[in-house]
Amino acid sequence: MTRSPASGMPFGPLVQPAPAARRPPLSPLTAALIAVAAVLLVSMAGALFPPGAWYDGLAKPGFTPPNAVFGPVWGLMYTLNAVALYLLLRAPRGGRRRAALAAMAVQLALNALWTPVFFGAQMMGAAVVVIVALAVAIAATIALAWRVRGAAAALLVPYLGWVAFAAVLNASLWAMNR
């Protein structure tokens, strides 16, 4: 048996340390619970600050949907968010997944912030800033999610469209009611 010149240890079969065990993605149940809980928390911000007499009294542009449209559309948008988040949580772990999940967290936080700013504080100008930041965060989430799970990214495209429309509506309301 030959010896290593530096250590005097015998050369033998190379013993490689076991590769770091890669943690598997979350279980379907865990991912579903996290996705639903996260989106429910965000949607609760809307429930805490419903439109009221203040909103009803605002001058509105002609393209403003009837109030009855907002609930079902937002319900669909939150459902799409929950499914997209579920898909990301079930994706293999790694830097791309972390980045997509971080972007998702930012856009969900901005989504939760908009309602108290617009309806709670009645600060339409500040709400425009929040909703534009939300649209940018959704676009970033789509771009990052695309690299992890294309289906998750695709599910967020209608949400981006709705938020872009809501941003135009928000800006119009602000302009008309200064």
Can you walk through the features of this model?
The protein has 178 residues and is mainly alpha-helical. Helix content is 70%, strand content 0%. It has helices spanning 28-48, 53-56, 67-90, 95-120, 124-146, 150-176. The chain is elongated and about 55 Å long. The termini are far apart.
Set down the secondary structure blueprint.
Layout (H helix, E strand, L loop, with lengths): L27 H21 L4 H4 L10 H24 L4 H26 L3 H23 L3 H27 L2
Helix pairs in contact: 1-3, 1-4, 3-6, 4-5, 5-6
Portion of residues within helices: over 70%
User: What's the main sheet like?
Assistant: none
Give the helices and strands as they follow along the chain: HHHHHH
Structural class: mainly alpha
Summary, kept brief:
The protein is mostly helical and 178 residues long.
What descriptors fit this protein?
single chain, 178 residues, mainly alpha, 6 helices
